[in-house]
Amino acid sequence: MNRIISRQTATLAGLAAVALGLALAAGAALASDNTPLYSTAVGKATYATYCSSCHGVDLRGKGEIAATLASKPTDLTRLAIENEGVFPVERLMKTVDGRDDVAAHGSREMPVWGELFLWPESDTPERRAQVERKIGELVAYIRQAQEPAAKN
Q1: I want to staple 98 with a disulfide (CB 3.0 to 4.6 A). Which of 45, 83, 108, 120 is the partner?
Q2: Is-contact 118 131, C-beta < 8 A?
Q3: pLDDT tens-digit profile of 12-63?
Q4: Which of 32, 31, 51, 35 is nearest to 43 (CA)?
Q5: What is the predicted pLDDT for the residue at 102?
Q6: Euclidean distance between CA atoms 90 and 92, whole angstroms
Q7: What is the DSSP track for the chain?
Q8: Contact, 117 vs 98, CB < 8 A?
């Protein structure tokens, strides 16, 4: 009986080691191209706080105040579809941080969300890293919410 338990324990330990090795290898592969890994869970919370009132809880542009706005908010679930199947990461980041003007977001000097996402051109590297992480998490959340392309 002890021999069976020992064999099962050894097998489980071996499987756990293989799983851990694969996870580490995948993480190293993802990190090796210098692409930061962002939390979609944090991005979702950020979205709920700063974006959902206009773009809606479901990201489709029908937030609670959307009807009161001069221009209809973008359906954020269709960004990849409307960009020939490619999710526009850089364009979205520039839209959020104010480098690309969006009239509904306000002027670059005073975006609707204040300085949280404002790209700090002449600020410290630490501040730029904080802004980049916050926007990266938001963009990661929006990216995972994309509608699949229509099948022909």
Answers
A1: 108
A2: yes
A3: 444 444 444 444 444 444 444 566 799 999 999 999 999 999 999 999 999 9
A4: 51
A5: 72
A6: 5
A7: -HHHHHHHHHHHHHHHHHHHHHHHHHHHHHHHTTPPP--HHHHHHHHHHHTHHHH-TTSSS--TTGGGSSSPPP-GGGTTGGGTT---HHHHHHHHHTSS--GGG--TTS-TTTTSS---TTS-HHHHHHHHHHHHHHHHHHHHTPPPPPP-
A8: yes
